[in-house]
Amino acid sequence: MTSTSRPNPLHFKIVVDAAAPHAQADFWAAALHYEVEDNSALIEKLLGFGAVPAELTVESHGRRAWRDLAAVRHPDDPVQEESGTGLGRRLLFQRVPEAKTGKNRLHLDVHAADGRREEEVARLRALGASVQRQVKEPGGEWVVMTDPEGNEFCVH
């Protein structure tokens, strides 16, 4: 590596443990105006080859989906055609057996358009989020909310 070259940035996704991954994906797709990923072509191909059992899949949005995984992606980001997997901004919800027990160590901040925070909070409440508290500090104002499974996030 020369002094003028730098490594390529790493691609990442945020993974969220969930009791109901498809419900969480639906909530967050609506909350962020994202799209639920469609992995049905890959799933059907793998089922056809006998590579995965049907018990690992469910029907969601009228198509085959992974039973224990659901992801949402930004609608403008690229997609891997064969798998339907987003290659940009994504949230992946994975089923876990245990319930959430404490405060998140990582959370999302959602930024509303100028002067539209209260409207955005009302929209998110209608989708199933709950208001935990309103924060007013010298550095700014925001609303702490939780998604339907109790994961904290902030609306600025």
From TrEMBL:
Q: What domain of life does the UniProt record list for this protein's source?
A: Bacteria
Q: Which SUPFAM superfamilies match?
A: Glyoxalase/Bleomycin resistance protein/Dihydroxybiphenyl dioxygenase
Sorted alphabetically, which InterPro entries does this protein's record hold? Answer: Glyas_Bleomycin-R_OHBP_Dase (IPR029068), Glyoxalase_6 (IPR041581)
Record-annotated Glyoxalase-like domain positions = 14-155
Q: Where does the record place a coiled coil?
A: none
Pfam families recorded for this chain? Answer: Glyoxalase_6
Q: What is this protein called?
A: VOC family protein
